[in-house]
Amino acid sequence: MKQLPLCLATAIALTVGFTACDDSASMSMPGSSLVEDQFSIVITDTFKIYSKSVLNPKVQSRTTTQLLGAIDAPTYGTLRADYIAQLFPTTSIDTTGVELDSVKLQLVFEKNGFIGDSLAPIGFDVYPLSVELPYPIYSNFPADTEFASTGFYNPTPGADDCHGHGIFTAGGLSISEETAGSSYRFAYANLPLGFGQKIFDAFRNPTTRQMFNNPDEFVSNIFPGIYVKATYGSGRVTRITDTRLLVYYTKTERLPNSDGVMIDSVRHLFTYYMSTAPEVVSNTNISLEMSDNITRMADEGRSVILSPAGRDVDLYFPIQNIIKAYDKSTGSSLSMINTMSFEIACDSIANGRGITPPTYLLMVLKKDKDKFFAANKLPDDVTSFVATFNKSTMTYSFGNMRSYLTEMIAKGDAITAEDFTFTITPVSMVSENSSSYYATSGSTLSGLSPMVAMPSMVELLPEDAKVTLTFSKQQLK
Predict the structure, then answer these.
(1) How confident is the model at residue 215, as a pLDDT?
(2) Which single residue of 4, 125, 346, 387 has CA 20 to 30 Å from 212?
Protein backbone atom coordinates (compact mmCIF):
# COMPACT_ATOMS: atom_id res chain seq x y z
CA MET A 1 0.00 0.00 0.00
CA LYS A 2 1.50 3.35 -1.03
CA GLN A 3 2.07 5.97 1.70
CA LEU A 4 1.36 9.54 0.63
CA PRO A 5 2.58 12.67 2.47
CA LEU A 6 0.50 14.35 5.21
CA CYS A 7 -1.49 11.18 5.88
CA LEU A 8 -4.52 10.98 8.11
CA ALA A 9 -4.41 8.97 11.30
CA THR A 10 -2.75 5.59 10.82
CA ALA A 11 -5.41 3.86 12.88
CA ILE A 12 -8.14 4.95 10.49
CA ALA A 13 -6.13 3.85 7.46
CA LEU A 14 -5.54 0.39 8.92
CA THR A 15 -9.19 0.01 9.91
CA VAL A 16 -10.80 0.64 6.52
CA GLY A 17 -7.88 -0.06 4.17
CA PHE A 18 -7.18 3.33 2.62
CA THR A 19 -4.56 6.06 2.49
CA ALA A 20 -5.53 9.73 2.75
CA CYS A 21 -3.65 12.94 2.15
CA ASP A 22 -3.86 16.72 1.74
CA ASP A 23 -2.63 17.88 -1.65
CA SER A 24 -2.99 21.43 -2.90
CA ALA A 25 -2.46 20.25 -6.46
CA SER A 26 -5.86 18.64 -6.26
CA MET A 27 -7.71 21.98 -6.16
CA SER A 28 -8.64 21.55 -9.80
CA MET A 29 -10.37 18.21 -9.20
CA PRO A 30 -14.16 17.97 -9.19
CA GLY A 31 -15.47 18.90 -5.76
CA SER A 32 -12.47 21.05 -4.77
CA SER A 33 -14.68 24.16 -4.75
CA LEU A 34 -16.41 22.68 -1.71
CA VAL A 35 -13.43 23.58 0.48
CA GLU A 36 -11.72 26.93 0.81
CA ASP A 37 -9.14 26.39 3.54
CA GLN A 38 -8.96 22.65 4.14
CA PHE A 39 -9.69 19.51 2.13
CA SER A 40 -8.54 15.95 1.76
CA ILE A 41 -8.28 13.57 -1.18
CA VAL A 42 -8.74 9.99 -0.01
CA ILE A 43 -7.69 6.93 -2.00
CA THR A 44 -9.19 3.54 -1.16
CA ASP A 45 -7.61 0.54 -2.81
CA THR A 46 -7.60 -2.64 -0.67
CA PHE A 47 -11.10 -4.08 -0.92
CA LYS A 48 -11.50 -7.81 -1.45
CA ILE A 49 -12.93 -8.72 -4.88
CA TYR A 50 -14.71 -12.03 -5.48
CA SER A 51 -15.33 -13.47 -8.96
CA LYS A 52 -15.87 -16.76 -10.78
CA SER A 53 -15.87 -18.04 -14.35
CA VAL A 54 -19.29 -18.97 -15.74
CA LEU A 55 -20.46 -20.58 -18.97
CA ASN A 56 -21.73 -18.31 -21.74
CA PRO A 57 -22.97 -20.90 -24.27
CA LYS A 58 -24.72 -18.55 -26.69
CA VAL A 59 -24.63 -14.87 -27.57
CA GLN A 60 -26.85 -12.64 -29.65
CA SER A 61 -25.27 -11.31 -32.80
CA ARG A 62 -25.55 -7.50 -33.06
CA THR A 63 -23.11 -6.76 -35.86
CA THR A 64 -22.66 -7.35 -39.59
CA THR A 65 -19.11 -8.59 -38.94
CA GLN A 66 -19.03 -12.39 -38.99
CA LEU A 67 -16.55 -15.22 -38.49
CA LEU A 68 -15.66 -17.95 -40.99
CA GLY A 69 -13.33 -20.94 -40.71
CA ALA A 70 -12.01 -23.32 -38.09
CA ILE A 71 -9.14 -23.34 -35.63
CA ASP A 72 -7.76 -25.69 -33.00
CA ALA A 73 -5.51 -24.56 -30.14
CA PRO A 74 -4.45 -26.91 -27.31
CA THR A 75 -5.24 -24.53 -24.43
CA TYR A 76 -8.24 -22.89 -26.10
CA GLY A 77 -10.20 -25.63 -27.82
CA THR A 78 -11.72 -26.20 -31.24
CA LEU A 79 -13.77 -23.47 -32.87
CA ARG A 80 -15.78 -23.81 -36.09
CA ALA A 81 -17.73 -20.89 -37.53
CA ASP A 82 -20.09 -20.39 -40.47
CA TYR A 83 -22.46 -17.50 -41.00
CA ILE A 84 -25.89 -16.67 -42.37
CA ALA A 85 -27.10 -13.32 -43.61
CA GLN A 86 -30.04 -11.59 -45.16
CA LEU A 87 -28.88 -9.07 -47.74
CA PHE A 88 -29.89 -5.43 -48.12
CA PRO A 89 -30.89 -4.68 -51.75
CA THR A 90 -29.74 -1.72 -53.78
CA THR A 91 -32.40 0.71 -54.96
CA SER A 92 -30.55 1.57 -58.17
CA ILE A 93 -29.82 -0.98 -60.91
CA ASP A 94 -28.97 0.09 -64.45
CA THR A 95 -31.32 -1.77 -66.85
CA THR A 96 -30.84 0.16 -70.14
CA GLY A 97 -28.70 -1.59 -72.73
CA VAL A 98 -27.40 -3.98 -70.07
CA GLU A 99 -26.38 -7.62 -70.47
CA LEU A 100 -25.07 -9.55 -67.45
CA ASP A 101 -21.69 -11.27 -67.80
CA SER A 102 -21.06 -12.97 -64.44
CA VAL A 103 -22.09 -12.98 -60.79
CA LYS A 104 -19.94 -13.42 -57.69
CA LEU A 105 -20.37 -13.35 -53.94
CA GLN A 106 -17.66 -11.11 -52.54
CA LEU A 107 -16.41 -11.56 -48.97
CA VAL A 108 -14.52 -8.56 -47.57
CA PHE A 109 -12.02 -8.94 -44.73
CA GLU A 110 -9.22 -6.92 -43.19
CA LYS A 111 -5.77 -8.10 -44.22
CA ASN A 112 -4.90 -8.68 -40.54
CA GLY A 113 -8.40 -9.76 -39.54
CA PHE A 114 -7.69 -13.40 -38.79
CA ILE A 115 -6.38 -15.82 -36.17
CA GLY A 116 -4.17 -18.73 -37.23
CA ASP A 117 -2.05 -19.55 -40.27
CA SER A 118 -2.14 -16.85 -42.94
CA LEU A 119 -1.30 -19.40 -45.66
CA ALA A 120 -3.90 -21.98 -44.66
CA PRO A 121 -6.57 -22.24 -47.38
CA ILE A 122 -10.18 -21.94 -46.27
CA GLY A 123 -12.82 -23.45 -48.52
CA PHE A 124 -16.45 -22.36 -48.35
CA ASP A 125 -19.78 -23.07 -50.01
CA VAL A 126 -22.64 -20.64 -50.55
CA TYR A 127 -26.25 -21.81 -50.27
CA PRO A 128 -29.56 -19.94 -50.48
CA LEU A 129 -31.62 -19.71 -47.31
CA SER A 130 -34.97 -21.44 -47.54
CA VAL A 131 -36.58 -19.46 -44.70
CA GLU A 132 -36.55 -15.97 -43.28
CA LEU A 133 -34.16 -15.75 -40.34
CA PRO A 134 -35.69 -15.40 -36.87
CA TYR A 135 -34.99 -12.43 -34.63
CA PRO A 136 -33.40 -12.31 -32.15
CA ILE A 137 -30.91 -14.88 -33.38
CA TYR A 138 -28.11 -16.52 -31.40
CA SER A 139 -24.70 -18.04 -32.02
CA ASN A 140 -25.96 -21.60 -31.44
CA PHE A 141 -28.46 -21.31 -34.32
CA PRO A 142 -30.34 -23.41 -35.36
CA ALA A 143 -30.36 -25.14 -31.94
CA ASP A 144 -33.40 -24.36 -29.78
CA THR A 145 -35.42 -23.32 -32.86
CA GLU A 146 -37.82 -25.08 -35.21
CA PHE A 147 -35.11 -25.04 -37.87
CA ALA A 148 -32.95 -27.51 -35.92
CA SER A 149 -34.97 -30.33 -37.49
CA THR A 150 -36.43 -28.76 -40.62
CA GLY A 151 -33.28 -26.99 -41.84
CA PHE A 152 -32.82 -23.36 -42.78
CA TYR A 153 -31.10 -23.57 -46.19
CA ASN A 154 -31.46 -25.48 -49.43
CA PRO A 155 -28.57 -28.00 -49.69
CA THR A 156 -29.52 -28.92 -53.31
CA PRO A 157 -30.26 -25.59 -55.01
CA GLY A 158 -31.32 -25.37 -58.63
CA ALA A 159 -29.08 -24.46 -61.52
CA ASP A 160 -30.08 -20.77 -61.37
CA ASP A 161 -30.16 -20.46 -57.59
CA CYS A 162 -27.61 -18.85 -55.27
CA HIS A 163 -25.01 -21.59 -54.99
CA GLY A 164 -21.25 -21.48 -55.38
CA HIS A 165 -17.83 -22.44 -54.05
CA GLY A 166 -14.83 -20.39 -53.00
CA ILE A 167 -11.36 -20.71 -51.53
CA PHE A 168 -9.03 -18.12 -50.05
CA THR A 169 -6.00 -17.51 -47.87
CA ALA A 170 -5.45 -14.60 -45.50
CA GLY A 171 -3.75 -12.75 -48.34
CA GLY A 172 -6.81 -13.05 -50.54
CA LEU A 173 -6.77 -14.12 -54.18
CA SER A 174 -5.70 -12.23 -57.30
CA ILE A 175 -4.26 -9.27 -55.42
CA SER A 176 -3.71 -6.32 -57.73
CA GLU A 177 -1.21 -3.56 -57.02
CA GLU A 178 -4.08 -1.32 -55.95
CA THR A 179 -5.51 -3.95 -53.62
CA ALA A 180 -2.09 -4.70 -52.11
CA GLY A 181 -1.99 -1.16 -50.75
CA SER A 182 -5.42 -1.48 -49.17
CA SER A 183 -6.08 -2.65 -45.63
CA TYR A 184 -8.81 -4.97 -46.99
CA ARG A 185 -8.75 -8.26 -48.89
CA PHE A 186 -11.41 -10.17 -50.83
CA ALA A 187 -12.59 -13.72 -51.34
CA TYR A 188 -15.00 -14.76 -54.12
CA ALA A 189 -17.46 -17.51 -54.95
CA ASN A 190 -18.76 -17.77 -58.51
CA LEU A 191 -22.57 -17.89 -58.62
CA PRO A 192 -24.88 -18.90 -61.48
CA LEU A 193 -25.51 -16.15 -64.00
CA GLY A 194 -29.19 -17.08 -63.86
CA PHE A 195 -29.37 -16.05 -60.21
CA GLY A 196 -28.14 -12.56 -61.01
CA GLN A 197 -30.59 -12.44 -63.91
CA LYS A 198 -33.50 -13.23 -61.57
CA ILE A 199 -32.56 -10.28 -59.35
CA PHE A 200 -32.14 -8.07 -62.43
CA ASP A 201 -35.56 -9.11 -63.77
CA ALA A 202 -37.21 -8.53 -60.37
CA PHE A 203 -35.87 -4.97 -60.34
CA ARG A 204 -37.02 -4.36 -63.92
CA ASN A 205 -40.54 -5.65 -63.15
CA PRO A 206 -42.72 -2.76 -61.84
CA THR A 207 -44.62 -5.16 -59.58
CA THR A 208 -41.54 -6.33 -57.67
CA ARG A 209 -39.31 -3.28 -58.08
CA GLN A 210 -40.95 -1.50 -55.17
CA MET A 211 -39.81 -4.34 -52.89
CA PHE A 212 -36.21 -3.19 -53.33
CA ASN A 213 -37.17 -0.15 -51.25
CA ASN A 214 -38.30 -2.34 -48.35
CA PRO A 215 -35.73 -4.90 -47.07
CA ASP A 216 -38.42 -6.93 -45.28
CA GLU A 217 -40.50 -7.29 -48.43
CA PHE A 218 -37.38 -8.08 -50.45
CA VAL A 219 -36.42 -10.89 -48.05
CA SER A 220 -39.96 -12.28 -47.93
CA ASN A 221 -40.71 -12.22 -51.65
CA ILE A 222 -37.50 -12.12 -53.66
CA PHE A 223 -34.47 -13.50 -51.82
CA PRO A 224 -34.28 -14.65 -48.16
CA GLY A 225 -30.48 -14.61 -47.87
CA ILE A 226 -27.33 -16.76 -47.87
CA TYR A 227 -25.59 -19.41 -45.82
CA VAL A 228 -21.77 -19.28 -46.08
CA LYS A 229 -20.46 -22.64 -44.87
CA ALA A 230 -16.80 -23.42 -44.22
CA THR A 231 -16.09 -26.72 -45.99
CA TYR A 232 -12.46 -27.48 -45.20
CA GLY A 233 -9.36 -26.10 -43.54
CA SER A 234 -8.77 -25.92 -39.79
CA GLY A 235 -5.87 -23.53 -39.49
CA ARG A 236 -7.54 -20.14 -39.51
CA VAL A 237 -10.68 -18.19 -38.72
CA THR A 238 -11.26 -14.93 -40.59
CA ARG A 239 -13.33 -11.91 -39.64
CA ILE A 240 -15.65 -11.10 -42.55
CA THR A 241 -16.62 -7.43 -42.39
CA ASP A 242 -18.96 -7.34 -45.40
CA THR A 243 -20.63 -9.71 -47.86
CA ARG A 244 -21.80 -8.44 -51.26
CA LEU A 245 -23.42 -9.68 -54.45
CA LEU A 246 -21.12 -8.45 -57.20
CA VAL A 247 -22.45 -8.34 -60.78
CA TYR A 248 -20.32 -7.77 -63.91
CA TYR A 249 -22.13 -6.57 -67.03
CA THR A 250 -21.76 -4.91 -70.40
CA LYS A 251 -23.63 -1.76 -71.32
CA THR A 252 -24.25 -0.81 -74.93
CA GLU A 253 -24.98 2.87 -75.62
CA ARG A 254 -24.41 5.50 -78.27
CA LEU A 255 -21.63 7.92 -77.38
CA PRO A 256 -19.84 10.61 -79.44
CA ASN A 257 -16.38 9.74 -80.75
CA SER A 258 -13.49 12.21 -81.02
CA ASP A 259 -15.09 13.72 -84.13
CA GLY A 260 -18.43 14.15 -82.40
CA VAL A 261 -20.06 11.37 -84.39
CA MET A 262 -22.47 9.17 -82.41
CA ILE A 263 -21.38 5.52 -82.47
CA ASP A 264 -22.29 2.35 -80.61
CA SER A 265 -20.07 1.85 -77.57
CA VAL A 266 -19.80 -1.18 -75.29
CA ARG A 267 -18.55 -0.66 -71.77
CA HIS A 268 -17.59 -3.36 -69.26
CA LEU A 269 -18.83 -2.43 -65.78
CA PHE A 270 -19.66 -3.91 -62.41
CA THR A 271 -21.99 -3.03 -59.55
CA TYR A 272 -23.33 -4.40 -56.25
CA TYR A 273 -26.91 -5.66 -56.12
CA MET A 274 -26.98 -6.53 -52.40
CA SER A 275 -24.85 -6.44 -49.27
CA THR A 276 -24.99 -7.12 -45.54
CA ALA A 277 -26.23 -4.20 -43.46
CA PRO A 278 -27.28 -3.44 -39.87
CA GLU A 279 -30.92 -3.18 -40.99
CA VAL A 280 -31.18 -6.89 -41.85
CA VAL A 281 -30.46 -10.03 -39.84
CA SER A 282 -27.09 -11.80 -39.88
CA ASN A 283 -25.45 -14.25 -37.50
CA THR A 284 -22.30 -16.30 -36.94
CA ASN A 285 -23.17 -19.94 -36.24
CA ILE A 286 -20.60 -21.08 -33.69
CA SER A 287 -19.50 -24.54 -32.62
CA LEU A 288 -17.00 -24.35 -29.74
CA GLU A 289 -15.49 -27.26 -27.85
CA MET A 290 -13.46 -25.73 -25.03
CA SER A 291 -10.20 -27.40 -24.05
CA ASP A 292 -9.74 -29.40 -20.86
CA ASN A 293 -7.28 -26.70 -19.82
CA ILE A 294 -10.00 -24.02 -19.74
CA THR A 295 -12.41 -26.31 -17.88
CA ARG A 296 -9.74 -27.17 -15.31
CA MET A 297 -8.88 -23.52 -14.69
CA ALA A 298 -12.56 -22.67 -14.15
CA ASP A 299 -13.04 -25.66 -11.82
CA GLU A 300 -10.07 -24.41 -9.78
CA GLY A 301 -11.91 -21.13 -9.23
CA ARG A 302 -9.84 -19.06 -11.64
CA SER A 303 -11.60 -16.21 -13.44
CA VAL A 304 -11.29 -17.29 -17.08
CA ILE A 305 -12.93 -15.44 -19.98
CA LEU A 306 -13.14 -17.08 -23.40
CA SER A 307 -14.93 -16.01 -26.58
CA PRO A 308 -16.86 -16.38 -28.73
CA ALA A 309 -19.71 -17.98 -26.78
CA GLY A 310 -17.47 -19.61 -24.19
CA ARG A 311 -17.02 -18.20 -20.68
CA ASP A 312 -17.74 -14.93 -18.87
CA VAL A 313 -16.84 -13.87 -15.33
CA ASP A 314 -19.35 -13.02 -12.61
CA LEU A 315 -17.92 -10.44 -10.21
CA TYR A 316 -19.25 -9.33 -6.85
CA PHE A 317 -18.36 -5.67 -6.46
CA PRO A 318 -17.67 -4.65 -2.82
CA ILE A 319 -19.92 -1.59 -2.88
CA GLN A 320 -21.18 -1.99 0.69
CA ASN A 321 -17.64 -2.07 2.10
CA ILE A 322 -16.71 0.95 -0.03
CA ILE A 323 -19.67 2.91 1.36
CA LYS A 324 -18.70 1.93 4.92
CA ALA A 325 -15.14 3.13 4.30
CA TYR A 326 -16.42 6.38 2.85
CA ASP A 327 -18.74 6.98 5.82
CA LYS A 328 -15.93 6.13 8.25
CA SER A 329 -13.60 8.65 6.65
CA THR A 330 -16.03 11.53 6.22
CA GLY A 331 -17.70 11.33 9.63
CA SER A 332 -19.61 14.55 10.26
CA SER A 333 -17.68 16.58 7.68
CA LEU A 334 -19.10 18.05 4.51
CA SER A 335 -17.87 15.95 1.58
CA MET A 336 -18.16 15.51 -2.16
CA ILE A 337 -17.20 12.43 -4.15
CA ASN A 338 -14.85 13.19 -7.02
CA THR A 339 -14.21 9.84 -8.69
CA MET A 340 -14.32 6.11 -8.17
CA SER A 341 -12.53 3.79 -10.58
CA PHE A 342 -12.03 0.05 -10.77
CA GLU A 343 -9.00 -1.63 -12.31
CA ILE A 344 -8.43 -5.36 -12.54
CA ALA A 345 -5.21 -7.10 -13.51
CA CYS A 346 -5.13 -9.97 -16.00
CA ASP A 347 -2.89 -12.60 -17.49
CA SER A 348 -2.77 -13.93 -21.04
CA ILE A 349 -3.15 -17.67 -21.68
CA ALA A 350 -0.54 -19.26 -23.93
CA ASN A 351 -2.11 -21.01 -26.93
CA GLY A 352 0.32 -21.05 -29.86
CA ARG A 353 -2.28 -19.60 -32.24
CA GLY A 354 -2.05 -15.90 -31.52
CA ILE A 355 -5.30 -15.80 -29.51
CA THR A 356 -5.03 -12.70 -27.32
CA PRO A 357 -7.01 -11.08 -24.49
CA PRO A 358 -10.18 -9.33 -25.72
CA THR A 359 -9.67 -5.68 -26.56
CA TYR A 360 -12.87 -4.59 -24.78
CA LEU A 361 -14.71 -5.91 -21.74
CA LEU A 362 -18.20 -4.91 -20.67
CA MET A 363 -19.08 -5.01 -16.96
CA VAL A 364 -22.86 -4.95 -16.64
CA LEU A 365 -25.24 -5.87 -13.85
CA LYS A 366 -25.89 -9.58 -14.33
CA LYS A 367 -29.66 -9.10 -14.25
CA ASP A 368 -29.42 -6.56 -17.10
CA LYS A 369 -26.98 -8.33 -19.45
CA ASP A 370 -29.50 -9.75 -21.92
CA LYS A 371 -31.56 -6.55 -21.95
CA PHE A 372 -28.41 -4.50 -22.55
CA PHE A 373 -27.61 -6.26 -25.82
CA ALA A 374 -31.23 -6.67 -26.93
CA ALA A 375 -31.82 -2.93 -26.60
CA ASN A 376 -28.47 -2.05 -28.22
CA LYS A 377 -27.51 0.07 -25.23
CA LEU A 378 -24.36 2.05 -24.58
CA PRO A 379 -22.52 1.98 -21.21
CA ASP A 380 -24.17 4.41 -18.80
CA ASP A 381 -21.50 4.36 -16.03
CA VAL A 382 -24.24 3.44 -13.53
CA THR A 383 -25.21 -0.12 -14.34
CA SER A 384 -22.73 -0.82 -17.14
CA PHE A 385 -19.09 0.05 -17.79
CA VAL A 386 -16.56 -0.70 -20.51
CA ALA A 387 -12.81 -1.24 -20.22
CA THR A 388 -10.01 -1.38 -22.80
CA PHE A 389 -7.16 -3.86 -22.51
CA ASN A 390 -3.87 -2.18 -21.57
CA LYS A 391 -1.15 -4.45 -22.90
CA SER A 392 1.71 -2.60 -21.18
CA THR A 393 0.19 -2.90 -17.69
CA MET A 394 -1.89 -6.05 -18.32
CA THR A 395 -4.97 -4.42 -16.82
CA TYR A 396 -8.54 -3.44 -17.62
CA SER A 397 -9.74 -0.15 -16.15
CA PHE A 398 -13.49 0.46 -15.93
CA GLY A 399 -13.26 4.22 -15.71
CA ASN A 400 -15.37 6.49 -13.54
CA MET A 401 -17.95 4.68 -11.38
CA ARG A 402 -18.87 7.80 -9.39
CA SER A 403 -22.52 7.77 -10.49
CA TYR A 404 -22.86 4.13 -9.47
CA LEU A 405 -21.44 4.91 -6.01
CA THR A 406 -23.70 7.91 -5.44
CA GLU A 407 -26.75 5.88 -6.51
CA MET A 408 -25.84 3.07 -4.11
CA ILE A 409 -25.28 5.57 -1.26
CA ALA A 410 -28.76 6.95 -1.91
CA LYS A 411 -30.19 3.42 -1.87
CA GLY A 412 -28.70 2.77 1.57
CA ASP A 413 -29.96 -0.33 3.36
CA ALA A 414 -32.08 -1.28 0.34
CA ILE A 415 -29.00 -2.55 -1.54
CA THR A 416 -29.38 -6.19 -2.60
CA ALA A 417 -27.11 -8.73 -4.30
CA GLU A 418 -28.59 -7.72 -7.66
CA ASP A 419 -27.05 -4.26 -7.19
CA PHE A 420 -23.47 -5.52 -6.96
CA THR A 421 -23.44 -8.76 -8.99
CA PHE A 422 -21.90 -7.96 -12.36
CA THR A 423 -21.05 -10.02 -15.43
CA ILE A 424 -17.85 -9.24 -17.31
CA THR A 425 -18.03 -10.28 -20.96
CA PRO A 426 -15.97 -9.58 -24.13
CA VAL A 427 -17.54 -7.11 -26.56
CA SER A 428 -16.90 -5.44 -29.89
CA MET A 429 -17.49 -1.78 -30.58
CA VAL A 430 -20.29 -1.22 -33.09
CA SER A 431 -19.95 1.92 -35.22
CA GLU A 432 -22.29 3.41 -37.79
CA ASN A 433 -20.89 4.06 -41.28
CA SER A 434 -17.39 4.30 -39.89
CA SER A 435 -15.50 3.65 -43.11
CA SER A 436 -15.21 1.73 -46.33
CA TYR A 437 -12.19 -0.01 -47.80
CA TYR A 438 -11.68 3.05 -50.00
CA ALA A 439 -11.58 5.79 -47.36
CA THR A 440 -12.12 6.53 -43.70
CA SER A 441 -14.89 8.98 -42.92
CA GLY A 442 -14.95 8.91 -39.11
CA SER A 443 -17.09 6.76 -36.84
CA THR A 444 -19.81 7.09 -34.25
CA LEU A 445 -20.20 4.48 -31.52
CA SER A 446 -23.71 3.09 -31.87
CA GLY A 447 -23.54 0.15 -29.52
CA LEU A 448 -21.64 -2.79 -28.11
CA SER A 449 -21.96 -6.30 -29.50
CA PRO A 450 -21.04 -9.61 -27.85
CA MET A 451 -17.60 -10.63 -29.07
CA VAL A 452 -18.28 -13.09 -31.90
CA ALA A 453 -15.95 -11.78 -34.59
CA MET A 454 -12.65 -13.14 -33.24
CA PRO A 455 -11.46 -15.74 -30.69
CA SER A 456 -10.07 -14.32 -27.45
CA MET A 457 -9.25 -15.48 -23.94
CA VAL A 458 -7.82 -14.05 -20.73
CA GLU A 459 -7.59 -14.78 -17.02
CA LEU A 460 -8.68 -11.99 -14.68
CA LEU A 461 -6.81 -11.65 -11.39
CA PRO A 462 -9.29 -10.37 -8.78
CA GLU A 463 -6.70 -10.57 -6.02
CA ASP A 464 -4.82 -7.79 -7.83
CA ALA A 465 -7.88 -5.62 -8.45
CA LYS A 466 -7.89 -2.05 -7.19
CA VAL A 467 -10.73 0.31 -6.36
CA THR A 468 -9.69 3.96 -6.19
CA LEU A 469 -11.98 6.46 -4.46
CA THR A 470 -11.26 10.17 -4.26
CA PHE A 471 -13.35 12.82 -2.52
CA SER A 472 -13.10 16.26 -0.97
CA LYS A 473 -14.20 17.12 2.53
CA GLN A 474 -14.38 20.09 4.90
CA GLN A 475 -14.18 19.73 8.66
CA LEU A 476 -17.04 21.33 10.59
CA LYS A 477 -15.84 23.56 13.46
Answers:
(1) 95
(2) 125
